[in-house]
Amino acid sequence: MLLGILDLESATVEDIMTPRNEIVGIDLEDSIEDIITQIKTSPHTQMAVYKKSIDRVVGFLHLRKVLVLVNQDNFDKQSIINLLSKPSFIPESTPVHAQMLRFKSEKIRIGLVVDEYGDVQGLVTLDDLLQEIVGELITDEAIARKQSDGSYLVDASITVRELNRLMQWSLPTEGQKHLMGLSLNLWKQFLNRGPALSCTGTRWKS
Hints:
By secondary structure, this protein is α+β, with helices and mostly antiparallel strands. It folds into 2 domains: 2-134, CBS-domain (Roll); 144-205, Uridine Diphospho-n-acetylenolpyruvylglucosamine Reductase, domain 3 (2-Layer Sandwich). Helices cover 36% and strands 23% of the residues. It has helices at residues 2-7, 13-16, 32-41, 63-67, 77-82, 96-106, 126-134, 160-167, 179-193; strands spanning 18-19, 25-27, 46-51, 53-62, 89-91, 110-114, 120-125, 144-146, 152-154, 198-200, 203-205. A hairpin with a 2-residue loop joins strand 10 (198-200) and strand 11.
């Protein structure tokens, strides 16, 4: 935990955010039946509500407030809109420790990360920030499973920072923030530079 706190000075929300393509939200262009099903089955407590694209976000919906209404005969999309809280936008270069203070002062727990043009790049929550300090409190399985050939099987959606901290590795954190992006970059280097990397099947080694 102390190492996590000391490391906050160098971390930004971009390092720990949920990437844009993994944001789970409610599209008001969907049918009300599909939206109700999504609300009832979602594992999240809050969800972004948008129209067609996450760039056209309307607000955030707290599912606890809406679950008591979804079975009413007059429940419709306007019922959802009436419950929305104003979306919070966070510049991607915002330091993690600064965003923690902002969440506290504004009494919010979730926000959308945007680039310099205002385009949504990801989503970050207070839980994400706290996890940066204490790590994953509950895991269903090991983050990285060592294979018989010495390689590791890792969920590619994990951030490079988190993987480095958990495994005591030193993978580069500049540039791509998630293991998937880093792996693709290394694969491109392999294709461009030839024997710099060796590869067997879908596994590569330096």
